[in-house]
Every structure is written in structure tokens, then in C-alpha cells.
Amino acid sequence: MAVDREQVLRSAATLLTRNSTATMDEVARAAGLSRATLHRHFAGRDALVRALEALGIAECEAALAAARTDEGPAADAVRRLVREMEPSAALLAFLYTENQLFEGEEQNEGWARIDAGLTELFRRGQEGGEFRIDLTPAWLTEALYGLLASGAWAVAEGRVARNDFTHMIVELLLGGALRREEP
């Protein structure tokens, strides 16, 4: 029987977003595989996390493209982006906690591309007078990641309705990022 690698990754992502310390045995069970079969595809937890990272990067890049972040007002682009990223938010929340992905020289270039796209969106909003200029685009990018992860955890725990995810993230981010007119 052929193993559908993407299905295995999605099963692992679903489990690990609910239980980040799940063992490889638990991941194998969630994917409907034996541990030996899982091990043939992913030599260990680090290899599995790296494969999940690649999936997360691909999904973020697809969300950035689908959101058309270079079109229209920057605030509208942020709304589209959060809506597009919502299906991947739980995976991103898991990856956000995996420190080994962000330490040392081996950081995946994909994150740098995503960071650059987000930073450019926030810079565009600042240059267009929509966003505050006292918060750096890099900080707004980090704030967005944090809000996406927090939103995913809140939805998973049942503290926030899934239908409110995009609205709550966008309103909090933009409510704090929008430039206020001086009285």
C-alpha cells in the first residue's frame, strides 16, 4: 500500500497542534500507520518537524499569493491575508513553538521570503499613511505571527469561535497598527 505523504503530514500536523509533545508512536497511530512505516518516511521527530516546516512554508507562500498583498489598501490586504492563512494557522502555531526551526544558521530561506513579503506589506501601509510609523514593519510582522498562533490555540481550545478568527486577529492588529489622526 502506498503511503500518501501529504496525508501523513496533515495527520501529524493535526495531532501535534493539539499535543505538541506527542510521540512518534502517537503520530503513527493518528496517521493510520505503523511506527516502522512512519520511520521509513521520517527518520525521527526532527525530520517530521522539518517536513511540517516545508508544508507550513508552502501554505504561507500560497496564502501570500492568494491574498494579493500588493493590491489595494494595505489594511484590506491584511484582512485578505489573515483570511487566507486561517486554514494553516494551527500548523503555524505548532511551528511557532519549535525553536529548532529558528535557531542557528540553518533557518529555512522560506521563512525569510515570507517575512520579506509581510514586512513589505506593512511598509507599504506605513508609506501610504495607513499604519503607524512608530512600529517597525518587522515588529508588525512578528505581531501578526503571534496573533495567528494565539488565535489558532484559542479556537482549538474552544475559547474563540472559528468564525471569529479572522475578525478578531485583524481588528486587534489593525486597531493597534492604524495611524491615528492628531486632534
Beta-strand fraction estimate: under 5%
Kindly provide the radius of gyration, computed on alpha-carbon positions and rounded to a whole number of angstroms: 18 Å
Arithmetic mean of pLDDT: 90
Distance between the termini: 69 Å
Helix content: 55-70%
Report the uncertain regions. Answer: none
State the total count of DSSP E strands.
0
Number of helices: 9
The arrangement of helices and strands along the chain is: HHHHHHHHH
Using the alpha-carbon principal axes, give the shape: elongated
* Structural class computed from helices and strand pairing: mainly alpha
Largest beta-sheet details: none
Characteristics:
183 residues, 68% helix, single chain
Task: Please give a quick description of this structure.
The protein contains nine helices and no strands. The protein is mainly α and 183 residues long.
